Model the fold of this input.
Amino acid sequence: MTILLRFPAVSPAVCALAATGVLLSGVMPEAYAHHGLANFNLNVDITVEGRIADIALINPHSWIYVDVANADGSTSRWKCELRGGTVLRRSGWSENMFEIGSAVRITGSPDRFEANTCYMGSIFFANGTQMDRYGQLVEAEKNVRRAIAIKRLADGTPDLSGDWAAEQVVMTDPRGLSGTLVPLGVADQFQPGELPAGGRAFQGSRGTPESFSDDPLATTWKRPSLLPLTAAGQQAIAGFDGGSTDNPRLNCQTTNILFDWSFDNPVNHIVQTATSVELTYGLMNLQRTIHLNGTDFPADLQPTRAGYSIGRWENEVLIVETRGFLPGILSADTNTPHSADLRVTERFRLDPENGALLREYEAEDGTYWTGTYRGRDSMFVSAYPFEPYQCDDRSFRTDQLQSR
Done:
């Protein structure tokens, strides 16, 4: 068995393009963040060959373990990172693909900090089959936009009940080494690694300035806040390290009701009645209740991560006001905190022609922010059922910090 390292040539033009490009229109910073990419040097090619020792299709990242035979007859165990278990199962992957003891070859890139660890770009099985990192075995995942009939409750109110999934976002390079993230439904329109017009390469991907940084973790995580912070907001985020377990997601905890709804392409679950809408997030199992039978917030409101939500229907739109949040992090990627004074307004509606559950939201926090943060997202009827989120983060920095 051999382990091969190769350093691809990267032209100055590629680096210049990455440095001057802009994000895709409408892409929210938090929506496409990937907490583990900076751990790997995607400018280096590596090949690992051995026998499958174990497979863990877990969240937020899956891992395959490979026993590698050394020249002296000893064995070294490697682990290579794959996409999260939920999104792999949505794509048709299963544990049965990984026969324990069978030969396997993996190409990808090495971990920057941890020995015998790699980022899987492609995998080649003993039976002659192969899969790229973003390989899809379920055609329905490529066509989530399809017409639906709106279900209704007895009083005629639209019924949002069901399993709703964010459309997968995938790299234009199916191996996940170069290019940028785009919706799966349009990925076939790009050549491997191609950038959309006006787009920029994903931070940390091959050839980007971040990938050549002497401190890629700091480069990835130390970005400007989503909106200007007050002096109190700046004080609240001082010393925060988004690449550590300061980041709730890297500690297997909920972040907030805005971004966790769509982050990492989850499957969310909704149960609606005449008096409430119960939402279970496919990320970290956050549970929310939208109360439809009241207009006032309780006087003895106890702060929670989900807050307290009151909703009302107006012309087929569910308008939701939420208060009563615990102080926390709006966006770890951009060092943006929020206080207990966070106020969120959401508007949910169904688009039967596109098959989408649309949400627009705006958030204000006069204690920590200057201005209003606005965004939107879409969910689609899921071909894969909701499943409880089992968080088992085995990334380098998380393991290191939790062991202290």
User: Anything to note?
Assistant: The chain has two domains: 4-137, 162-167+222-402. The helical segments are 12-20, 85-90, 216-221, 231-237, 396-402. The first strand starts at residue 4 and ends at 6.
